[in-house]
Amino acid sequence: MNIQKIRNDFPILKRKINGKLLAYLDNAATSQKPKQVIDMLSHYYSKHNANVHRGIHTLSVEATEELELARKKVADFVGVSDPSEIVFVRNATEAINLVAYAWGRLNIEKGDEIVLTVAEHHSNFVVWQQLAMENGAVLKIVPIDENGEVDQEAFKEALTKKTKLVTFCHVSNVLGTINPVEKLVSIVKGQWSNVIILIDGAQAVPHVPVDIPRIGCDFYVFTGHKMLGPTGIGVLWGKREILEEMPPFLFGGEMISKVRLDNSTWNELPWKFEAGTPNIAGAIGLGAAVDYLSKIGMENVRAHEIELTEYAISRLSGIQDIRILGQKDSKKRGGVISFNVGNIHAHDVASILDSEGIAIRSGHHCAQPLMEFLGISSAARASSYVYNNFEEIDRLVEGVMKVKKTFKINSKHEIHV
Ligand SMILES: Cc1ncc(COP(=O)(O)O)c(C=O)c1O
């Protein structure tokens, strides 16, 4: 992988922040976009813009073809052979809500159990919490172990004949843990084949090769903006037979087959779930992002991430007073590294790093139950992607040293401001 060549594709990486070259290490929040994606958006609006699936004129046919080609590219990227199982939504959050409304509200009843882990992003937590409250279902929360991995014994114990839905993230947005998704699915399906499994792949699809059918789940969701694509486009994959049984989530244009004065019938998959004018440019942009990642090869993306993470963890661990959360073995985790420096607030860490042109995230990372479980209120988080290099990790380490110096932290975790 030629990182310099890749970096040249990302115009924003030439930006200076506070007089320093940008070191963008906030990729778990959103990724930057290569010129191939930016140019595709411009090309679409300059040459093909029209509404889809309804016009007979040339532009409309072209826009429709481009949209459906993007769907096919996305399906291929995650090993799905039937593109009509790929539903375009706004983001991972909307995909999970779609399942909760269209499948959950019909199938989860009073006393039923929903099993999920304490490490879920709010998107995959609050949705089920609210559904459980509404329907009188029980939320069963599985803990994680000291490495940030799902406690498999507790996971097995949580499953009962009342379990209707099991859900977990593929990769944690806080700990970087890569969950053994195939194993977890086989634990569930081996005992309770009727239980529905939804996997939140928002942090996985951008970083590791994903073959959805191999995993064996029922629903899998991800989001375009974390994988070099535009914002406002995400993906719900569902098994055809389940999607077919589900009623629509939103009603209106595009999603109908026939509308009569007294009743209506629904369009075929996936359009039954795509009411109104979709994010056509966003989907086409996501198609370009998928082309870009495929050209590099997801095995190479992952290999680069392992190298960079190993280097970052070994350098950061050398700093006294730093506490890195989760797994230290880079082969078992993604490129998300959350840490705290003594008892300095993560926002202070992020703000000093910003003064050095280094962008990281700080806060609770939309995972307050996990923060509570870990006994912390916030953490700093550096997360890498295809365009990050070793030099940027060195700058991160120097930045953390500056944080310590600014706060005059000594090795007893005392701060003298
Ligand atoms: C693990 C995980 N799930 C879901 C989401 C939600 O993604 P989006 O905001 O694009 O819906 C995120 C975003 O940070 C995430 O990290």
- Can you count the helices? 14
CATH topology of the largest domain: Aspartate Aminotransferase, domain 2
CATH H level of the largest domain: which superfamily?
Type I PLP-dependent aspartate aminotransferase-like (Major domain)
CATH secondary-structure class of the largest domain: Alpha Beta
* Helix content, binned percent: 25-40%
Radius of gyration: 22 Å
User: Under the CATH scheme, which architecture of the largest domain would be assigned?
Assistant: 3-Layer(aba) Sandwich
- The N- and C-terminal alpha carbons lie at a distance of 44 Å
**Secondary-structure-derived class:** alpha/beta
Ligands in the model, by name, code or SMILES, are: pyridoxal-5'-phosphate
The averaged pLDDT comes out at: 95
In total, the number of strands is 17
Unreliable stretches covering 5 or more consecutive residues = 413-417
Report the biggest beta sheet as strand number plus sense, adding barrel if it closes. Answer: 7 strands, mixed
For the record, the count of structural domains works out to 2
**Outline type:** globular
